[in-house]
Amino acid sequence: MALSKKIDHRVVPIKDFSSCAYCSVRQLCLPVSVAKKEINIIDELVASRPLLKKGDYLFHSADKFQSLFAIKSGAIKTYGNTRDGREQITGFHFAGELIGLDAIGNNTHNCNAVTLEKTVVCELPYKNIESINLLIPGVQREITRLMSLEIHNDEEMLMAIGSMRAEQRVACFLFSLYRRLMLRNKQKSIFRLPMTREEIGNYLGLSLETVSRRMSSLHEEGIIEVENRLIKLENIDKLQALCS
Amino acid sequence: MALSKKIDHRVVPIKDFSSCAYCSVRQLCLPVSVAKKEINIIDELVASRPLLKKGDYLFHSADKFQSLFAIKSGAIKTYGNTRDGREQITGFHFAGELIGLDAIGNNTHNCNAVTLEKTVVCELPYKNIESINLLIPGVQREITRLMSLEIHNDEEMLMAIGSMRAEQRVACFLFSLYRRLMLRNKQKSIFRLPMTREEIGNYLGLSLETVSRRMSSLHEEGIIEVENRLIKLENIDKLQALCS
DNA sequence: CGGGCGCTTGAGGCAGCTCAAGTCGTGTGG
DNA sequence: CCACACGACTTGAGCTGCCTCAAGCGCCCG
Questions:
Q1: What would the pLDDT profile of B8-35 be if each residue is shown by its tens digit?
Q2: What domains are defined for chain B?
Q3: In a designed cystine with A96, which of A25, A67, B76, B194 is the match (CB 3.0 to 4.6 A)?
């Protein structure tokens, strides 16, 4: 058996299913604008693809910036610490998204990144990325595009939080999750929240009780179905309408 | 054209005071990491340096993205329109800052940019920037850095707005202005707000009355002096402390 | 000099927070 | 495998900070 395997290897290239070529979120991640035959170059960027369990940290605030992380699967939250010790969540991140972009500016991480569930990430040492730019200019363009999108997202979020009532904020949050998670699992409109009500509240500037209450209201209005962490969107149009 | 320019340079270099070489915010803008003799390359990026009066627009939401704008002097606000027609301000921008970065992602502006006072900007067509990357890699690195900083800023803002009481938000806002404006005018801790209380409130998610009231409280606590648009910081440490 | 906009200050109402109690679901140890 | 314990969530009651509405002032510009 070991023998037959060896022979296979010689004849057929190793199908490394962890490679970008087989990644389920390839279309959303760095390789998106890279030609098929260049995808192995992206692969070589990757220093490791650790499997993390819930609660593992990718980096801490004030750590020296060394790598970006692409999420293959799972969920991550990033948060900062306010002076009085509380944590303030700045974002939730899912498969296909890139973490650490805000650290490029001053070469230091400004937030902590921790997994919310079993998660696989691809570690991309930034100096590899910088050197590969000379080979494939598309990669730099892609990173620039992703950063721009993150700015865009943050600013939408700013608009939302500043001017919306609690129910709208929750609706907006769920809709954002819908858009991002649905890109990946082609599932209909059912998904599982990887974070607690308290974390949602922290992120949205609401108390956990208010999050819970407003999710109940959304249910009473026939917009969503809630069963613990499981969310089913019953009326996506109405949900989107709330996000104005 | 290129020829005559070259000759001019040989005889007596034209002192074009609008050039980057003489710009008062050179240290904060794109040229920061560019060698002296390469600064004219940056200059050639610039398509125009219009003098705008209060209320002029740089671009509107949904416009095709064509140029970034570097602010030489003045102040600009960017805002989006919510579905119900209100405007939501996403940022204020001052000399040395770069506008339009959030449009790179999908080649379309997502917000409107309008001047708050007399303003001079340098228009940087993005295709010029992309082509110049091949000549001076430092420019791309600088843009990446600026984008990263903008992400960082937005996320700090998100933290602030989500979890802070009104007085803290106002304090935080003033402190951010202090840091950014003081980099430019070496003046002590006095500056003029280019925006109305209503615009501050809109940005911070507060009513204009609350902004006014909380600025009065900050005055009563001996932290600031207010005279219409003129702000004097009396106790910067206390102010910073409020921003936790 | 007049008008209007920007700003301040007051009064009352309500959305969301805090505190509290109780249920449910999950993970852990016997 | 079951029982227990703890964390997560929901729901209720009362309180408070911010919003809304309103009135009046002062600065700026035509």
A1: 444 444 567 788 888 888 888 888 877 8
A2: 14-136 (2.60.120.10), 164-241 (1.10.10.10)
A3: A25
What pTM value is reported for the model?
A: 0.82
Q: Minimal Cα distance from A157: which residue of B? A: B158
pLDDT for position B150: 87
Query: Which residues have CB under 8 Å from A78's CB, separation 6+?
Result: A89, A90, A91, A93, A99, A111, A112, A113
Interface of B with A in 68-97 (CB under 8 A): 80, 82-84, 86, 88, 90-91
Contact A204, A211 (CB under 8 A): yes
A236 Cβ contacts chain D strand, under 7 Å: no
Quote the DSSP letter at residue B112: E
Note the Cα B185 to chain centre separation in Å: 14
Q: How many CB atoms lie within 10 A of CB B26?
A: 18
pLDDT tens per residue across span B35-52: 887 888 888 889 999 999
* Closest partner CB to B155 (pick from A84, A90, A156): A90
Collapsed DSSP state (helix, strand, coil) of residue A214? helix
Query: Over 70: is that where the pLDDT of B6 sits?
Result: no
Q: How many angstroms separate the CA atoms of B27 and B95, rounded?
A: 11
Of the pLDDT bands very low, low, confident and very high (cuts 50, 70, 90), residue A231 is very high
Q: What are the DSSP E strand ranges found in A74-159? A: 75-81, 87-94, 98-99, 112-115, 119-125
CA of A174 to C1' of C21 (A): 29
How would you class B14 by CB atoms within 10 Å of its CB: exposed for 0-12, middle for 13-18, buried for 19 or more? exposed
- Stretch B158-182: mean pLDDT: 88
Closest C-alpha to B244, from B162, B187, B151: B162
**What is the number of residues in chain A?**
244
Alpha-carbon radius of gyration of chain A: 20
Which residues in A lie closer than 8 A to residue B244 (C-beta atoms)? 82-84
